[in-house]
Specification:
Mean pLDDT of chain C: 87
Order of helices and strands of chain B: HHEEHHHHHHHHHHHHHHHHHHHHHHHH
Structural class of chain C: mainly alpha
Number of helices of chain C: 3
Oligomer: heterotrimer
Largest sheet of chain C: none
Radius of gyration of chain B: 28 Å
Shape of chain C: elongated
Distance between the termini of chain B: 76 Å
Structural class of chain B: mainly alpha
Strand content of chain B: under 5%
Largest sheet of chain B: 2 strands, antiparallel
Number of strands of chain B: 2
Strand content of chain C: under 5%
Low-confidence stretches of chain B: none
Chain lengths: 169, 621, 102
């Protein structure tokens, strides 16, 4: 059983990484979003194998569901076509990706070095269900929840205003 | 009653602060400025009454307000010291200031800087009172610099004209030469005697130094340097004629009645040191005699009414220095008092005349004013007679005769000094009546456009009264000062003449000057002209007119070399390093500016790069 | 039961974060820049959850929930701005938005 979970973790991790790479290199926005959904699903499985079922569920529902749908709506509103694909190709051609790749690679190397050399030993053995999370969330983290709700309210007002002000000029 | 002493300088100071900060209507400004000085005057008069009625123990009163600073044995207090000498100075300063403030309320009424003017004036009065009341030399120096600052500010009061600013700077820099010498003298005094309290110094100095010892002479000469600068004596007198660029009440208050006599006060205050340094005291006398003659000759040639008065002031302070130098201490202080009255009055009268003639300064373009400005004429005449020394009546005659008598009979006196002072009387009489005849008699050249009001005339009348009555208090005055400033006398046999003979000679010389002036100005003006136009006369005239070419000399000896060195020093290494700093900063600015590209991705990359570097620092360092 | 080493979870988070960063720097399309930011947030979330599970505490998951809330707010406002920007300029090129440059 444990071996299966372990295997699932690595498989899902590989899927997530590969689909992310594909997502950030696609020329067509919709393709990129679809790969991103795959990446999110992979991460959801990773969460599950790490003993966090609630978060895994939310990852699917909110990230892969709500947020990505939002993106897709926007992409549809943009009405992008082949012309945009050509331009994307142009933007990504040549050495445009080289600098960012090197920079990210250095950062990743540093992070991995930190993780490996640091005291991060030990296995992920716990299984924390929704109940425990809920108790903590509405217990000591109550104020955080309130703040998050205010943030979301602000975002709603902001987004509404931004899209409404458009009609004025 | 004596406990109110601190209010005397404090009230003008507070009012100066208010005037400097608050924006008030003109009426309030005038009221506040005059009322504060009036309060100061009333308090000082009350103090005088109480001082005379019930003298404090030791005939002196010290009021310690608080300890100023306390550094390893050096602890000067903010403390006031009242004895007959400082009492006289305080009363005269406060009273004359009050009259001149009253005069200024009308004189300056049309000026934009009304409140500014009175703020400076009140600050000046506060500083001057601090100066004369200080019980230690450091506080005295504070007042000394305070009056210097106010003098600078007020000379350049009409700062829009660069000439005025230049005159202010000149006054400031020239007196600075003297002030530097003064402060070095203070350092030396403290280093030698360990205190700056004046009374302690006067007590300790004779115990530690014998007469004529090197340190005493050095200190006396250094303090003399300060006095010479402040009181516009040879060789630092060049600033005072230019200081006439300021408003006339300023000339009356600062550059005639009060500030310029600060040097006299300083020497009188520290007279014990001069008794220990006979050579320095002799230098004081010689400087006084030389200055009174040189300035007298210069005054003879001036065209500008205020410059005549300025040279006259230098000359009269020369008399005070002469009196100090020969050891006739009370005569110097007495002459300070009468001079404050009549010279203040002369300047006030000059202010009225100049305003009446629409800013006309040239005495040759005045004339015939006695009918049109009668009050001004009579008060001006009284003051002029007092200045020239009309015998038996005027205060100036009493004080000058006293100085003459001192020059002959006091411990350091000599016949030579007496003769110099007598020639000075002739010159004074000549230039005074030359001025009076040119301004008030003869033909009128410029129409009168403005008549003075009550606020300007009342101070003139009061001062005219004092210019006469002030002389009759000589005997009680001498008695009052006896303890602080004893008159020193020579051996009677060495004195060549009697006091009456000296006064008679002065009276005759006065008459001679009057007759000469009458003859040359009113009777035979052509003769005076021909004297001034023949080659030798013209050269002498030019020479005297330019104050013995002192300015020309200083320009060449000091100003130009300094400017030249400054020119050379402009591009030196030190300067280069500062320039380099500026260039480096500019380069840095250019480099940093290029990072502000506005490109979102560059900013993100910069953040990422910064993160990488930070982690690297944590990891590998 | 399951025994994935924590370091592997953290490394996965790091990889995702680095990939998001690379995308952010590489793309000129504002939409894909936003996508990259989502990836980076996700990477951070993975690290949180891994650490939380390692110490058997719910806090890691709660932090992820807060990240989720922040991401939702951010995306909604950013997309609104994006749409406005596109209407205004007719492009999604991040390099044309240089109003802040000197």
């Amino acid at each position: 059983m444990s071996g299966l979970m372990e295997a699932a973790f690595y498989v899902a991790a590989v899927v997530a990484v590969v689909s992310t790479i594909l997502a950030i290199t696609r020329l067509v926005a919709v393709h990129a979003l679809l790969y991103l959904i795959v990446s999110f699903l992979g991460v959801a499985v990773v969460f599950y194998t790490m003993g966090a079922p609630l978060v895994a569920t939310l990852e699917v529902i909110i990230y892969a569901g709500a947020i990505l749908v939002l993106f897709l709506f926007v992409v549809m509103m943009m009405n992008l076509g082949t012309r945009d694909r050509e331009r994307e190709r142009q933007w990504l051609s040549g050495a445009a990706w080289l600098g960012p790749a090197i920079l990210s690679a250095i950062l990743l190397a540093e992070v991995i070095y930190l993780i490996v050399s640091g005291s991060t030993s030990g296995a992920i053995a716990a299984n924390i269900g929704p109940k425990e999370v809920a108790f903590a969330l509405y217990g000591p983290y109550m104020i955080g929840v309130e703040l998050a709700s205010m943030l979301l309210l602000g975002a709603v007002v902001g987004a509404t205003h931004l899209s409404k002000a458009e009609a004025r000029p | 009653m004596l406990g109110l002493l601190w209010l005397v300088p404090a009230i003008p100071f507070a009012s100066a602060l208010v005037l400097a900060v608050a924006r008030l209507p003109r009426k309030v400004v005038a009221w506040l400025a005059v009322a504060s000085i009036a309060a100061s005057t009333v308090i000082s008069l009350l103090i005088t009454y109480s001082f005379l009625h019930t003298p404090p123990t030791g005939n002196a009163y010290t009021q310690v307000l608080w300890r100023w600073l306390d550094v390893s044995g050096f602890h000067p207090d903010i403390a006031l010291y009242l004895d007959p000498l400082s009492l006289i100075f305080m009363v005269v300063v406060a009273f004359v200031s009050f009259l001149i403030h009253l005069y200024s309320t009308e004189f300056m009424i049309g000026d934009d800087g009304y409140a500014r003017f009175f703020a400076y004036m009140n600050l000046f009065v506060a500083s001057m009172l601090t100066l004369v009341l200080a019980n230690n030399l450091l506080l005295l120096y504070l007042g000394w610099e305070g009056v210097g600052l106010c003098s600078y500010l007020l000379i350049g009061f009409w700062y829009r004209d660069p000439v005025n600013g230049r005159a202010g700077r000149k006054a400031f820099i020239v007196t600075r030469v003297g002030d530097t010498s003064f402060v070095i003298g203070l350092f030396l005094l403290f280093q030698q005697l360990g205190t700056l309290n004046i009374q302690d110094l006067m007590r300790v100095a004779p115990e530690s130094w014998h007469v004529g010892s090197g340190v005493a002479v050095a200190v006396a000469f250094l303090l003399l340097g300060g006095a010479v600068g402040k009181s516009a004596q040879l060789p630092l007198q060049t600033w005072l004629p230019d200081a006439m660029a300021g408003p006339t009440p300023v000339s009356a208050l600062i550059h005639a009645a009060t500030m310029v006599t600060a040097g006299v006060y300083l020497i009188a205050r520290t007279h014990v040191l001069y008794a220990l340094a006979p050579s320095a005291q002799f230098a004081v006398a010689v400087i006084g005699a030389a200055t009174l003659l040189l300035a007298g000759f210069s005054a003879l040639t001036q065209h500008d009414l205020k410059r005549v008065l300025a040279y006259s002031t230098i000359s009269q302070i020369g008399y005070m220095f002469l009196a100090l130098g020969v050891g006739a201490w009370p005569a110097a202080v007495f002459h300070f008092m009468t001079h404050a009255f009549f010279k203040g009055l002369l300047f006030l009268g000059a202010g009225i005349i100049i305003q009446a003639l629409h800013e006309e300064h040239d005495i040759f373009r005045m004339g015939g004013l006695w009918k049109r400005l009668p009050v001004t004429f009579w008060t001006f005449l009284i003051a002029g007679c007092s200045l020239a020394g009309l015998p038996l009546i005027t205060a100036g005659a009493f004080s000058k005769d006293w100085i003459l008598w001192g020059a002959a009979s006091a411990s350091q006196g000599s016949t030579g000094l007496w003769v110099a002072a007598l020639i000075g009387v002739l010159l004074t009489s000549l230039y005074t009546f030359r001025m009076i005849f040119l301004v008030f008699f003869g033909e009128s050249h410029t129409p009168v456009t403005k008549k003075p009001g009550a606020a300007m005339l009342i101070p003139c009348i009061v001062l005219a009264f004092l210019s006469i009555a002030g002389g009759y208090i000589r005997i009680p005055f001498a008695h009052f000062l006896e303890e602080v400033l004893p008159w020193t006398t020579r051996v009677a046999a060495a004195v060549p003449l009697s006091e009456t003979a000296s006064a008679t000679a002065a009276g005759l010389v006065f008459l001679l000057g009057l007759v000469f002036a009458w003859f040359f100005i009113l009777r035979r003006p052509s003769l005076a002209k021909s004297l001034a136009t023949n080659p030798a006369g013209a050269a002498l005239h030019r020479f005297w007119f330019s104050d013995w070419a002192m300015d020309w000399l200083y320009e060449r000896i000091f100003v130009r070399p300094v400017l030249w060195i400054a020119q050379i020093g402009k591009g030196d290494v030190i300067d280069g390093s500062y320039d380099g700093l500026a260039i480096l900063t500019q380069g840095g600015w250019r480099a940093l500016r290029s990072t502000q590209s506005g490109k979102l991705r560059w900013y993100a990359a910069a953040i990422a790069g910064g993160t990488i570097v930070l982690i690297a620092v944590v990891l590998f360092l | 039961m399951n025994a994935v080493p924590m370091s592997d979870g953290l490394i996965l988070g790091g990889i995702l974060f680095a990939l998001g960063l690379a995308g952010l720097l590489m793309r000129r399309n504002l939409l894909l820049i936003l996508v990259s930011i989502e990836v980076m947030l996700n990477g951070a979330g993975v690290a949180f959850v891994a650490a939380g599970s390692r110490w058997a505490q719910p806090d890691g998951q709660i932090m992820f929930l807060f990240i989720l809330a922040a991401a939702a707010a951010e995306v909604s406002v950013a997309l609104a701005l994006l749409v406005r920007y596109y209407r205004m300029r007719g492009t999604l090129d991040a390099d044309t938005a240089r109003g802040l440059g000197e």
